[in-house]
Each structure stands twice: as C-alpha cells, then as structure tokens.
Specification:
273 residues, alpha/beta, 9 helices, 41% helix, 21% strand
C-alpha cells in the first residue's frame, strides 16, 4: 500500500521548523497581496491544511482579523509549538491533528482553504485536493502553494554544479517516494479535471534580488539538513554528495555577484457547486 506520508521523517525533523520560518519570511511578503482577492465574510472560516508550526496560520489570522482560522497537521510537535506561539489569538485560532486525506470536517465548512508546501510531498494529490474541496463551501476558494523543484535555477559557476542536482535528483526522489516534485506545473490540470472554476496561477519570486540572501540560504540549509540522508537512500546521489550540492546552491545564493531564483507558484480556484 502506498505510504500516504513518505516525507514524514523529514517533516518531523527539527530542520523543518527552520525551513517553515525561512519560507514564510521569504514568500509571505509577496504572497499576502493575493489573499486580498478572497472575499471572506465577517466571522468567516479559514482552513490552513498542513499548517506545520503555524507560521502562515498566524499571518492569516492577522490578515483576516474577524475570521476563525483552523490549522491542521499530522506532526504533533509542530502543532504543540504552534499552540504555544499563538496563544494571543485566543479561541479564534485553533490547531488540530487531522490528515489532509480525511479531514473529518463537515461538508462546506470553510470559506477559504489554504494548502501550502504540501502537495509535492504526498502521493495522490488529487485525493487531497478533492478532500479540501469537500470541506470548502461552493463558491469558496482554494489557495495552494505546490512546490516545483524544476523552478529552482542556479548558475553553472559552482562545484559541484547545482544545476545537475536540481535537474536530476527531484525526479528520482519523487519516483522513489511516489510523489510529484514538479507538481507546481501540474496543479492547473488537476484543478481543471476536478471541475474547479476561475483558476489562476501567480508567482512569488524568491531570488537574490528580492529576498534577503541569508533568508534564501536558510531554506537551502534546512533542506540540506533534513533531506540529504533520505536522498542518499533513495536516489543515485549519495548523502555526502547531496550535502555538497546543497552547499554549492548556498554558495551561489550567498555570492554577492551570484544570482539564483526559485519561482514559487501560487494557484487559486473557486470551488464548484
């Protein structure tokens, strides 16, 4: 049977806490404006599916000051950290242990459902999206951030060449874990096949011009620390070489004369009746 959480060990690693923090700092400043298009009624309901440590749950609660926001995840340590960090929101914000494949909420419960940094790490993303749609009211919105590692671009000036790594390894790792590490470009098609309306694709540009270099480098460091061993076990690249490739990517980011970019897709759609 397919493992529904093949990245579970990496998601639970302490490096993921650092990763979620760095990704929020890098992405949210550009992403926040896209939430303005969602018309959430006063006292509306928002779901953050795969909330991790609550970095974005808390930002959603601040942005939609009258909304009730529920963050769900399957990593209890992340949920405990989120609860301890965001007590200030009181009962308006809740964190619960629930699976994205079987949320356990009633149909049509949420006005906006957010799912960030999750779809690339699970098999059967269409099942997860269908479950997200089920708990979202007709006419409500889905807001997705599906990572796509083919949208990471580095220069050929570093050794080992990070271009070789990012061209080859995500596909191998995806095949070994039955996940799609290029799902960012495939999400539009999944939403079309599931009958969603008003699909939009926008991009946050995390690069060495728009983003603080150390923040960008911190994402790579967290990926290196959390994923190198798993890459060594599941691809043709050893763990030691994976670390060297990550270090070359970090060197590119930190080089004041270097340029690197991650195109982060922001995919939105309305839920059909």
């Amino acid at each position: 049977m397919t493992d529904l959480n093949p990245h579970g060990e990496q998601m639970a690693d302490e490096s993921m806490v650092r990763n979620l923090d760095a990704q929020a700092r890098a992405i949210w400043p550009q992403e926040a404006k896209f939430f303005e298009r969602y018309k959430i009624a006063r006292n509306g309901y928002i779901l953050d599916a795969g909330c991790g440590t609550g970095e974005i749950t808390s930002r959603l609660a601040s942005l939609f000051a009258d909304a009730h926001v529920t963050g769900v995840d399957i990593i209890d340590a992340h949920l405990e950290l989120a609860r301890s960090r965001y007590v200030k929101f009181g009962p308006r914000v809740a964190f619960e242990h629930r699976s994205i494949f079987e949320l356990g909420f009633a149909d049509d419960e949420f006005d906006l459902t957010v799912c960030r940094h999750v779809l690339q790490s699970i098999p059967h993303p269409e099942r997860a999206i269908a479950e997200l749609a089920r708990v979202t009211r007709a006419g409500g919105y889905l807001h997705l951030l599906p990572e796509d590692y083919g949208m990471l671009h580095f220069q050929n000036r570093y050794a080992p060449n990070p271009v070789d790594f990012w061209t080859r390894v995500p596909a191998e790792f995806g095949k070994a874990t039955e996940t799609n590490n290029h799902i960012g470009r495939d999400t539009f098609t999944l939403l079309r096949e599931l009958g969603f309306l008003d699909i939009t694709i926008d991009y946050v540009v995390v690069d060495t011009v728009r983003t603080d270099r150390e923040t960008f480098a911190s994402i790579m460091q967290a990926w290196r620390d959390g994923y190198s061993e798993a890459i060594g076990q599941r691809t043709s690249v050893s763990a030691a070489d994976a670390r060297r490739y990550f270090d070359a990517s970090i060197e590119n980011i930190r080089d004041p004369d270097g340029y690197a970019v991650w195109m982060v897709p922001i995919v939105a759609a309305r839920v059909p009746a």
